[in-house]
Structures are given as C-alpha cells and as structure tokens.
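Lab meeting notes turned into a lecture example. A postdoc, R.K., suggested we walk through two folding results consecutively so the class can see how the record format repeats. The first protein's sequence and structure tokens come next.
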Amino acid sequence: MSRRTERVGNLIRNTLGSLFLAKLSDPRVDPARVSITRVETPEDLLTAKVYISVAGGDKAEESRVIAALRHAAGYLQEKMMKQIQLRNTPRLDFQIDEQYKKTLRTLNLISEVSEELRLKDQARAEAHESETPEE
C-alpha cells in the first residue's frame, strides 16, 4: 500500500465515520456499536474495501448491519463525494473485519493467561511467606 492510498483510505475512514454519526438514519446501524476499523484502496482508487466491526454483535446482527450499509452505499458515496475532492469517488464495499475479531480474541487470551500467571505468583508468594518462620 502506497503512502497516497493509505492517506486516501484514512480520509475515507474518517469521512464515513462522521457520516455514520450525522447522516445515516437506518435503524439497523447503531453508530455507537458500529465502527470502521480500516479502509483498503487499490492504486487506481476506484474501489474501497471498508472493514467494520460491530461491538457485541453476533453473526445475525453483523449480517443486518452489512446489508444496511451495502444498501446505503450509494447514498454514502454521494455524501462522501461532497466532502472529499477526488477525481473518482471510490465504490464502497463493506465487509466485517475478521482480522480485528481475531486480534481481539488473541488479546483476550493474553489477558486471561496474564491474570492466571499473576494469581499463581501471588499464591506462591503467600505460600512462601507462610513457610518462613517469624522471629
């Protein structure tokens, strides 16, 4: 990904984020729970893969959100075109960010293991204190 496509992707992400909050009134999309994790654009900037995450959502809710966003894609492109000055407005393709979900699962596992290790160290320290004679 070149620096230019990365900048355009970030610009699209920020613009869509503000559009979600201000202009999108579909009840299937709760802007407090739906976030754009990243946007990938090819060098020609004709398309943009918009990866989203639904906080606390199951597969059914994610499907409803994706369907709603795909339905509103033309509207969002039109509003985005007025805010971003590009030769062509990229066609938006919304997808659930599976990589983000995997990262969250990994972080949760690391947190659980860290907590287990902390508890074991604490138990060891308490056992060691009870073994040493007091003077």
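The second example is placed directly after the first for contrast:
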Amino acid sequence: MTSTDGSHPAPLSLREVGIRFERSGEPDLVIIDDLSLDVEAGQMHCLAGRSGSGKTSILKATAGLVRPTSGDIAWSGTSIGSQSDDRVTAFRRRHVGYLDQGGVLISGLTALENVLLPAVPDRETRDRGRKARDLLTRLGVGGRMRSKPEQLSGGERQRVALARALLFDPQLLVVDEPTASLDRANADSVITLLRSIADSGTAVVVSAHDQNLIDAADTVTVMA
C-alpha cells in the first residue's frame, strides 16, 4: 500500500487481518476479525479498548511476532506473511521497534547492556553506545545505566525496554500500554517522547487505557 501522496509505501498496512484460536469441541475463539489499517510515516495510531479486546494480539502480529490467521500485514509495502521467520526477524531488528507491556529485560545484564542487545548480532555495540546512553538519559533513567533489572522499578524497566526499542531509529514503533506502570509525570514524559518520535517521521502504533495517550494520537481504533 502507498502513502496518501502516492510516493512511498506506508510503514504499516493491515488488510482484513483476523486472529482466532481453535478450541476443541467449541467454536473458534475470534480475537480480531477483518481489521484493515494504514499507519503512515509521522503518524501515531492508538488501539484503545477494554482488556481482552485483542489489542496485544494485534500488536504482536503487527510486530511480526505471531502470524495472523487470515489477512495480510505489510511493512513498507512488503508482505511479511510471505517471508521466512528468519527474514522477518532480521528486518524487525533493524526497522521495527517493539515494546511489550511488561518491559521484559534480560536478567544479569545492566540497563545499558539491555538497550544494546539489538546491536549484538552485527557487532555494533560500540558504535551504538552513545545513542543508548542518550536514550536512557532522555527517558529519565540515565542514572541507572549500570543497574541490573532486579534493581529497577517496574516503570524504570519499561523505560529501559523502550530505549532498546528505539536503538536503531525504527521506521515503525509498536508499543503495548507504555504508560500503564508509570506515575503521571513519567507517563506524560513518555507520551511526549512518543509524540516527538512520530513527529520526526516514525510510524507509531500504541495500545492504551490512558486517556492522555489516546488524546495524543493522530488516529484511534476502538477495540470492542
């Protein structure tokens, strides 16, 4: 799919995407049915709705972590359904940032080392070190670079994980409930950062219960 001016494919296109799970002796459990969506460069789109409405399932499919049951997902015009898992993983590491709701970090590594993990396969940790430090500082955890995950609060772990997702300046950033475990001041700082990331040209897809985050988005899909 192309952008509205016809010049470039949208960083994210969903076409009639469905996600359902088989249940023995019962009808399939339908999570999402026929969802179509384009998110352009420089746009922030929010999936809003109650818990259990399928927001996380859609985000995982959007980030190429699970395959939808039906329909098609494309990154910058290329269908990921036709790609091998290895190719999807390689492209995601460079071009798609993903942050789950728990902000999962690797135990035993420092905050800085966790942020640099995407740079390890291509041996770019030294080159990306300054960027990683700048991101941690910008997210308010610059003083925790040498701390291990078990020494961090839930909100701090989530911000470290967000820094990791931003390390390669992704074309598409996918974030699940980024303000859920933060106090209001830190939540608003994350919203401001996500807004600035979108304004700089990245396509951002978030899920949220936070009305401040919903209000900051350019477009919203309400999940039933």
